[in-house]
Write a structure and sequence with these properties.
With 158 residues, this protein is α/β, with parallel strands linked by helices. Helix content is 44%, strand content 20%. It binds adenosine-5'-diphosphate.
């Protein structure tokens, strides 16, 4: 079974990566896909985010990285993904994720949304927190892979 893990990943964090590693042990193949139009303005380009995820997942042979425009369910259908993976960190994620899962179900019944509960040590972690700390010059080495830390430093030096 192929699972699709869609998201903004702006940038990928150790929380995302933990979820990807765990999913790679559950599914035959995991497609991590950067949403091109997620409705959020982004710090990194789609190509940069894709490259960051690829580098972070080189040790996982059944994980592939892609990007998509348009509806998640359409991308899932085109790639034969029967599972849409999402992460749940706290109660605050629940309402939004529930709404999205229900809505996706109205668009397609071919894919089921499956939630993985975040590892406790990353339950506070979000890409926006990482961007904010990096913008203020704080340390993020405990929150993102080393190459992403470098990209962040470079991005905010400019
Ligand atoms: P989106 O804009 O689609 O919410 P994100 O990149 O913010 O994209 O998140 C993608 C998915 O990863 C979401 O399901 C989110 O709940 C999950 N996620 C985000 N941060 C973490 C984390 N620290 N641990 C586990 N899952 C996470």
């Amino acid at each position: 079974m192929i699972a699709l893990y869609p998201g903004s990943f702006d940038p990928i964090t150790l929380g995302h990566l933990d979820l990807i590693e765990r999913a790679s042990r559950l599914y035959e193949r995991v497609i991590v896909a950067v949403a091109i139009d997620s409705g959020k303005s982004s710090l990194f380009s789609v190509a940069q985010r894709q490259a960051q995820i690829e580098k972070a997942t080189v040790h996982l042979p059944n994980v592939v990285v892609d990007s998509f425009d348009g509806l998640t369910v359409e991308f899932a259908r085109a790639h034969d993904c029967r599972v849409l993976l999402r992460g749940l960190r706290a109660v605050s994620d629940f309402e939004y994720e529930l709404q999205m899962a229900q809505t996706n179900r109205t668009l397609s019944e071919a894919a089921e949304t499956v939630f993985l509960v975040t590892a406790a040590e990353y339950s506070f972690l979000s890409s926006s927190t990482v961007r904010q700390i990096a913008r203020l010059g704080g340390p993020v080495s405990h929150l993102v892979p080393p190459h992403v830390e470098r990209d962040l430093r470079e991005q905010f030096r400019e």
